[in-house]
Amino acid sequence: MKLLVVGAGGREHALAWKLSRSPRVRRVYVAPGNGGTAREPGLANVPITDIDALGDFAAREGIAFTVVGPEAPLAAGIVDRFRARGLRIFGPTQRAAQLEASKHFAKSFMQRHGIPTAASETFSEPAAAHACVDRRGAPIVVKADGLAAGKGVVVATSLAQAHEAIDTMLTANRLGEAGARVVIEDFLQGEEASFIVLVDGHHVLALASSQDHKRLLDADRGPNTGGMGAVSPTPAVTSEIHARVLREIVRPTVDGMAADGTPYTGFLYAGLMIEPGGAVRTLEFNCRMGDPETQPILVRMKSDLVDVIEHALDGTLDRASIDWDRRTAVGVVLAAGGYPDAPRKGDEITGLPRAGAAFGDDCWVFHAGTVLERERLVTAGGRVLCVTALGESTQAAQGRAYRAAESIRFAGMQYRSDIGARAASAAATRD
Ligand code: AMP
Ligand code: GLY
């Protein structure tokens, strides 16, 4: 069969790579893809981003099903448009994708259905928002309602920072329509983790747990980014926490969406705050897999992802299961100089294998911001590569990933040297 993956990042390279390993798959098209998907055996890039043109392509090529990586096409209604033409596609409808596309939608949904999250209020009037901040005090969190490519959340440690965030979003309209409403919510403390499940409208199948590293610099310093690396599993998600998240967050979300007439299908990502006492709250929902969480999760997946997604498309996820490699996977993002504000582009990348993600035993390099210019690989975005390795321990996986990272070169390359360190120290404390 032939499949289509929509997107151009490291998540999409990993998804397409994993799907292509199924013995049932002849080719995976990636639209528009990147320099890594261009060179991966079994994959082919398609230079299309328009939704109707993607539908034409899927119909013409007889694509068995399409998997959507990023949120933007989901929020724009790609699933609705494909389904209307009888094309199989895995993802949420436009209305269901509001769980990510509108923080106000997600917060009022959670409040209505009793799903634990930080207490919040929504404002479109600056004066009322400023008054709320004064009333609630700092630290406090100000979030743009709409999709803002990772720039929409300000964790304010002072009142001044919170007021400034409101000015930026509501008064100066710096984020455009996405910042026309703001959600102001309580600051939560604890350990963050990513909890991603597949949903078929009713049944749920959990993926392995993971943890992102959102700050640019070691020891969680510096500005927020799209994610500088991830580890799977994370010891923060014990079997008790896992059960609690399914019972208190995922199950009521899937049931609530169905009861509201917007049944959820696709990957559902709950960003968790695990509080010191073991209570779990939802920081955010994403209507897709995480990037870079996907990369370490998928190198641990032993089952055939094609079979699992087919179950999800058929509404029979209750009959599916996933086998996981028991080892730990660490994914280290190699980012461009200047990332996240102004990443440099156009630098040649050297030290990579000639074709494919595989980089020695139990190590893979997934591409994100790269393009293939004739035979040269060149940087083309903020997050350039994600070096992902498996190991018997977090330290072993780190060692393998960092050795590989050291052999890769491009001008201005930057990466964190402590991806997985929190997981490693938690495991050491436990042992
Ligand atoms: P979000 O896009 O909503 O996940 O927010 C991005 C990051 O901001 C999260 O990964 C957290 O580190 C932080 N964050 C968001 N909401 C809160 C909160 N209520 N309390 C503390 N930190 C938060
Ligand atoms: N890694 C965080 C995200 O994908 O939203």
**Shape by Cα distribution:** globular
CATH A-level architecture of the domain at 2-91: 3-Layer(aba) Sandwich
* CATH fold call of the domain at 2-91: Rossmann fold
Ligand names:
adenosine monophosphate, glycine
Q: Looking across the biggest beta sheet, what order are the strands in?
A: 3-2-1-4-5
Structural class by helix and strand composition: alpha+beta
Question: Which spans of ≥5 residues are poorly predicted at pLDDT below 50?
Answer: none
Any overview of this molecule?
With 431 residues, the chain is α+β, with helices and mostly antiparallel strands. Among the domains are: 90 residues, Rossmann fold (3-Layer(aba) Sandwich), CATH 3.40.50; 56 residues, ATP-grasp fold, A domain (Dna Ligase, domain 1). It contains 14 helices and 22 strands. The strands form six sheets. A five-stranded parallel sheet has the order 3-2-1-4-5, sandwiched between helices. A five-stranded antiparallel sheet has the order 12-15-18-22-19. A hairpin with a 3-residue loop joins strand 10 and strand 11. Helix 1 runs parallel beside helix 11 and helix 8 runs antiparallel to helix 9. The radius of gyration is 21 Å and the shape is globular. The termini are far apart. The structure holds adenosine monophosphate and glycine (GLY). The site of glycine has 6 residues, from loops. The site of adenosine monophosphate has 14 residues, from strand 7, strand 8, strand 9 and strand 17.
